[in-house]
Design brief:
six-stranded antiparallel sheet, Heat Shock Protein 90, Beta-Lactamase, 20 helices
């Protein structure tokens, strides 16, 4: 048996191109036009019957029928073919319909074998038309899907993750990245490669990673100024190009950049928001490297236009959250911008680990993250309602003062709109109200206080469980760990920062009493990553 080629049939229109290939192969093997036509017709009849109900993978090889040689075509399909085709065999994954066409007993020269492979592997004009139609359809479908999805996303980090996933999938890219314009620089905020772990695919980068100047010394910088830059090979940029390629990011990620299209993300007022980069497109079937065609570049511009509109809107939500917490920071020096970013990063990373263990889809995880991220940032927003005398008191609080301080949980919950209008409102209430609840029920607020708060918000309070164990909403349990972790790892006026070893030991002791034991298990399994988040976001 000598393998010649594989190809796929997805629609009846593709069968004609495959039929012509079988005809030409038989003609090369036999020199008999009648036999070639008969074999091609027999193949076409089977292939068309299969493809009318499902796609098929065709394997073509040279085999034997007794003493004679034969051109063998195996058509493998995931759905059972019509009964009259009589599958040759069936395994757990595929039905296989086999057809063998006698070519005689003569020896087949190596040169003929090479010509056979060339015939089978070369795409016909019809196949190229079909392929281009399919690729264009895939990309425009992705554009439509992206437009609908982006219209509902509130959190800017969730938006970047979704945008990059959809764009990379539509263009069949190995990698991509998003750089945001921050303080006159382009800062890498999210990167995706085919080797990215499921967790890294769903999370943005912590801290302040690699940044580039907004000038023409880099492809991203040039795209920011000129709208778009496309290259066939980043390591072989034509002489005279105003930009260069910096391989440091490749080295950092263990990657090899080839074809790149970089597109500016600009607001309706022409304000630069960032740059979208798509890297290394491949043929979806053969995985052979491709370049970005002119059609690809035009579609990438459309992607960027949609993304910029959504990015501008999501930035408003993030800006509003940061402004609210800026007010809180004036009252409580512990509530810094770095603190709320760290709490949000830790809580969301822990949530992804929890949801992944349960087999949640990426779509479902991203939907939850869209509310959890901003809600985690607002965990102590209720402190704006606490007196500065208590917040800034240098010594220990009295019992009465401590009671007032603890009321920041119910004050924060009441800051959400009355009535559960959005998922974000619900997440804010769960985080603000429950992030000081304890697994053993010894935290605060009490069940009676929770009921009174929910009733004031117009929410159903009849079935409120005791704030202990799984009666505490997941968002509250996640932020409880993130908040305490950050407090222990950080230096305060009244204490030094704990060592990572001491922090780890504290969580080991507190699992099942203060904190959800399963979440502590997941947290400690990835403890170094959480320490890295704390180190990366300074302040």
């Amino acid at each position: 048996m000598m393998h010649l080629a594989d190809f796929s049939l997805r629609r009846p229109a593709e069968v004609d191109g495959a039929r012509a290939k079988i005809h030409e192969c038989m003609l090369l093997l036999t020199g008999d036009r009648q036999r070639a036509s008969q074999a091609a017709s027999a193949f076409s009849e089977v292939a068309r019957a299969i493809v009318e109900q499902c796609s098929a993978r065709v394997e073509v090889s040279i085999g034997r029928i007794g003493e004679s040689r034969a051109l063998q075509c195996i058509m493998a399909t995931e759905s059972q073919p019509p009964a009259h085709l009589a599958p040759d065999r069936h395994d757990e994954m595929h039905w296989r319909v086999v057809r063998r066409f006698d070519t005689g007993s003569s020896w087949v020269p190596h040169g003929t074998m090479d010509r056979l492979r060339a015939v089978l592997e070369t795409k016909s004009h019809q196949e190229l038309v079909e392929e281009n139609y399919r690729l264009l359809h895939d990309k425009t479908t992705a554009l439509n899907r992206l437009s609908l999805a982006l219209s509902t996303v509130q959190d800017v980090d969730t938006l970047m993750v979704l945008l990059l996933q959809e764009a990379a999938q539509a263009f069949h890219c190995e990698a991509g990245s998003i750089l945001l314009a921050e303080d006159g620089q382009l800062v890498f905020r999210h990167a995706l490669t085919s080797d990215s772990s499921s967790r890294d695919r769903l999370l943005v980068r912590a801290g302040d990673p690699v940044s580039l100047p907004i000038d023409r010394t880099s492809m991203a910088g040039a795209a920011a100024l000129d709208g778009m830059v496309a290259v066939a090979d980043a390591y072989n940029i034509p002489e005279g190009a105003p930009f260069t390629f910096n391989p440091s990011v490749d080295r950092m990620m263990g990657f090899r950049t080839r074809a790149v299209v970089s597109v500016a993300l600009r607001s309706n007022h022409n304000e630069l928001l960032g740059v979208l980069q798509l890297i290394n497109p491949r043929d979806p079937e053969s995985l052979r490297p491709l370049e970005f065609s002119s059609e690809d570049q035009a579609l990438a511009m459309n992607f960027a236009s949609l993304a910029a509109l959504a990015l501008e809107r999501s930035n408003l939500t993030r800006t509003l959250v940061l402004r609210i917490m800026g007010i809180a920071e004036l009252h409580d020096p512990k509530e810094t911008g770095a603190h709320i970013r760290r709490v949000s990063q830790v809580a969301t990373r822990l949530f992804v680990a929890w949801a992944s263990r349960r087999g949640w889809s990426e779509e479902r995880i991203l939907k939850e993250l869209d509310s959890l991220r901003p809600a985690a940032m607002l965990h102590d927003v209720g402190k704006v309602g606490i007196s500065d005398i208590i917040l800034k008191k240098p010594g220990a609080l009295t019992d009465e003062e401590r009671k007032v301080m603890q009321s920041h949980t119910t004050i924060g919950a009441k800051s959400a709109l009355k009535g559960q209008r959005t998922a974000l409102d619900a997440a804010i209430r769960d985080v603000t109200l429950y992030h000081h609840a304890r697994w053993d029920g010894k935290g605060y607020p009490t069940r009676d206080e929770i009921i009174a708060t929910l009733a004031a918000l117009g929410d159903d309070s009849e079935q409120v469980p005791e704030p202990r164990g799984e009666g505490i909403p997941l968002a509250g349990r996640l932020v409880a760990i993130a908040d305490v972790f950050d407090a222990l790892m950080s230096r305060r006026a009244y204490k030094e920062a704990w060592t990572p070893a001491d922090v780890r030991a504290e969580f080991e002791r507190s699992a099942g009493t203060h904190f959800d034991p399963e979440l502590v298990e997941l947290f400690l399994a990835d403890f170094d990553s959480y320490c890295a988040i704390h180190a990366a976001i300074s302040g």
